Please model this.
Amino acid sequence: MKQPASILIVTLMLIGAGHVCRAQQEPAHCGTHLYQPPGVRVHDPWLVNVDGTVHLFHLPDAWHATSRDCVFWEPHRAILANSAFTAAERNYNTEPEVWTGCAVQHEGKIYLFWTGNMGVNRRLCNRICLSISSDGGKTFTHHPDNPIIKPDPRWYDTENDPAPEYPYHGKTHDWSGGVNGKMALMDWRDIAIVKDPKTGLFHGYIVARLRGKKNDKESACIARVSSKDLVHWEVHPPVFNPGIWGLHEVPDVFQLGAKWYLTAMATYPREGVYHGDDPLLRWGHLVGESDSPEGPFRLVKDNCVMAGVDQGKGYYSMRTVEFKGERLAFACGDKLSLAVKLVPREGGGLQDVWWPANEKLFGEKRGLALRDAPGQPTIEAPPRGDDSFMILAGIELGTASAAGITFRKADGGQPPTLFLDSTKGCFEWVGGDIPGRGRIAARTWPLKPGGKHTIRVLNIDQHVVVYLDDRYVMNGRGQKFETAGLALTSVGGKARLRDIQYWGPRNGMPNLLPLEGGAVRAGFTPANMEVFVDGQECLSARTIDRTCHQAAIEITGGAATISKPLLHHFKNRKETP
Model:
């Protein structure tokens, strides 16, 4: 689009480890880094695709961000900050911040559902509330009938008929931030909504408690509600009540092929046991399957996707979104994870697999040469200064009973090794954590002697994600693999590495791209900027440095002239970042 002539003075600033850039007071996420607004701990994502732009909402305060490619995200602002609530609105949200909900596009509007909290009869009662945007998510108006969905006492606990105090979420806590007193939590929260394409009916799924049960595992359930207009709701019996977990949170429901799937975060952090089909797992998202959105949803075999080390060190609270015909899952752990693709698995359930578009986060791919060394061969060391990188390596077990890749540390400390162990039938991440701790994580895996596999390792912002045979297997938050040297480690025989590929940080493109109808000057130093003219994005650039710059940018007849050399890479506004 041809831009009108104008002069803009833009202050450019990178803030903290999130490397967020600002222009015209509109922040944007740039560089080889995971999404995280400055000073914000990202958790519990809610996503909706609105005409090709994915809107992300997340706690705290329903922070809003958007993306056109599900790789790079632009944060905007907190939608539901408690300080903006009126006194009347605080009657249904007494906590300092709102809790988890979901977003739905309907008739040109975004319906934002969220969990409000009220202190009633010495219970902290969750209730489902609604805010609506008619301008693409820029502003939201709270619905006058909030809270719009409440539990039905025919099936669920209510403040007038409370359950006994279950461990943790049924137990009395001091919610001193809002309701000023010790109260037990009354679960009715974390709603997820899906539209049935056959009937046009909206179905909602809510974390709830079945009434009259003697313990937390028997009572933990997912309730179903339904609506024709997203405002008036009917409450139904639960669609999911496995009786295994004392708590399952942040549900999501979607259709893939002929089946409907329910996912939910399931474990008790204080128990430290996942209770899934894989006895080695400590954290993950369970999977239920149904022939209809009305349920019931039955647990499937191998009932876990996007598993992690544990809640404290891995990703958690996963949600999904449909994007270009694919179902993408995102989880949180202070930062938003990269997208993981979910596909139906033969025999039932879901498979969490590598999504190739994530490669855009990195630079160009190059091979790493193998070198002969005493004992086992070593791999050409990648650049040591790369904080973010991806490595893909083929590994053949050969005559070895176990083999893997070791990431050497510059200080000579205990290095982490990713092990394939055919005798144990598992894939292990060993070492590299707290000295002496040993095993960090493991997954049961069908390994055969002499088998051939691929290991993909992503190291981003001190977040490690590992794929085996391009299936998501484990992650570690606050962890970092170093590239002081790589080596093949084998046990009980000889193994072999092959086809080792390395992607370093994305440092920009080699050539500048012109604006529509104009041109830009070359020869700029690395920097980072989004520029908007009359509300339209006209150019952007990205960087990984931490400096602060100011520049005068003149837009004349569609051409951009930089008065102070600044930008390293401009992009046509129709290009994907």
